[in-house]
Task: structure prediction
Amino acid sequence: MIANALPKAIFQIQELTKVYRMGEVEVKALNCVNLNLYQGELVVLLGPSGSGKSTLLNIIGGLDIPSSGHVLFHQRDLTHANDNVLTRFRRECVGFIFQFYNLIPSLTARENVALVTEIALNPMHPEEALALVGLEERLNHFPSQMSGGEQQRVAIARAIAKRPEVLLCDEPTGALDFQTGKLVLSALERVNRELGTTTAVITHNAGIAAMADRVITMRSGEITSIHCNEVKLEPEELEW
Result:
């Protein structure tokens, strides 16, 4: 994100609350959260397990619905959208990356990415997406022939191949060791920088926060602080 610019708000999250009911017990996963996500920024959502990070990201991405409040995407309220609208939103606008890679074992890296490009409006070629995450030499390898970090980078390539405006990443380095995790973060940073994809990364690892434009800290379903990094570290400079 360009310093001192006035970026456009992609998402406007207003008074967002999510309550889960288990019998007579209510658990408030989100409590009146207000937040904007801006075009082209890289945001880290930081907080312990149970702080509401994943619930927030799932609602932003159209995977869950709030109990109250609103999520606006380009000024369009998604909160009460029907299933067809949300399916189109997820398919065309959002890329998801999770802690576990969810690759199809019987397909090569190229074929795993091609699954997405076949249903996208303006996709990259699978080879282009894999090259962007540094896997141009692994196109014809199966998941069992790749390391965990390589598999996660295939998952990133799959997510970005449809050219989403937004990339939502839930603990993308959670299953990886330190050095492999930095390779995955480098791939995410490159996608954010070269494609201008608004990127939100959930983590409980405070060391990752230094690569972000903004760090949003959550606890008990609420945002406790928002911090802007005046100087961002490259992923390879991170320590944790």
Strands lie at 9-22, 25-38, 42-46, 68-73, 76-77, 94-97, 166-170, 198-203, 214-219, 222-228.
